[in-house]
């Protein structure tokens, strides 16, 4: 990559040539043009240094996070098209989500990885990960004495999300720098038209046309 001095010299203004009908620029105008040129050059250099291949680029960071999470359940060759598919499940333990062992109370859920294996045209089996690879998630956010009843998992924009169908909280499941995996409360979805005190009972999520849709089930005859 070119050094700052090389780029700076390449952007140096050309030797001026006066046209007989041109009006000379005043010193303040020249100063403003020099400042604008320097600002644009600095912006261009910063943008190029943050290309998608750069580790500091936001897209690169999201992909790296997704790869780190996916690697927790990777076992080599377990991909669709070969009769093997990687799967990840999250628990909705209802009242059993109470998690006093989490420290100070709260609620808990578990991420469990495995591999769906096709044995024949009509027969499948699941190979679950070892117990020591099960991920425990904990939160102290709940509603009505319940919480962390996670009903779905969905990757969106490189982040793994899950939703609590009691509190309406949407969690981003992230791996921190120290290697620990946490459920971080990122959004709260109210019920009804979005003005209700009760949390939205999210039961599923899907990505379509670059948008994340989060839904529930319907009740016949209920408003």
TrEMBL record:
Ca(2+) binds at residues 151, 203. The keyword Membrane does not apply. It holds the Pfam family Apyrase. The keyword Ribonucleoprotein does not apply. One of its GO terms (molecular function) is calcium ion binding. SUPFAM superfamilies: Apyrase. Its cofactor is Ca(2+). Keywords: Calcium, Hydrolase, Metal-binding. Residues 1-28 are annotated as: Disordered. It comes from the Eukaryota. InterPro entries: Apyrase, Apyrase_sf. One of its GO terms (biological process) is proteoglycan biosynthetic process. Belongs to the apyrase family. This is Apyrase. The lineage of its organism: Eukaryota, Amoebozoa, Tubulinea, Elardia, Arcellinida.
């Amino acid at each position: 990559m070119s050094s700052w001095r090389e780029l700076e010299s390449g952007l140096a203004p050309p030797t001026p040539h006066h046209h007989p009908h041109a009006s000379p620029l005043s010193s303040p105008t020249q100063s403003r043009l020099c400042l604008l040129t320097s600002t644009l050059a600095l912006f261009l250099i910063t943008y190029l240094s943050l290309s998608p291949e750069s580790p500091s680029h936001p897209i690169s960071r999201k992909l790296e996070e997704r790869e780190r999470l996916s690697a927790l359940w990777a076992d080599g060759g377990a991909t669709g098209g070969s009769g093997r598919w990687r799967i990840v499940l999250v628990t909705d333990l209802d009242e059993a989500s109470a998690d006093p062992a989490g420290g100070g109370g709260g609620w808990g859920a578990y991420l469990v990885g495995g591999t769906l294996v096709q044995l024949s045209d009509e027969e499948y089996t699941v190979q679950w990960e070892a117990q020591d690879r099960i991920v425990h998630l904990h939160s102290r956010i709940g509603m009505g004495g319940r919480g962390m009843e996670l009903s779905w998992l969905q990757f969106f924009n490189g982040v793994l999300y899950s939703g609590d169908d009691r509190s309406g909280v949407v969690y981003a499941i992230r791996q921190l720098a120290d290697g620990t995996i946490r459920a971080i409360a990122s959004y709260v979805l109210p019920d009804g038209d979005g003005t209700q005190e009760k949390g939205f009972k999210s039961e599923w999520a899907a990505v379509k046309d670059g948008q994340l849709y989060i839904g529930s089930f319907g009740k016949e005859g209920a408003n």
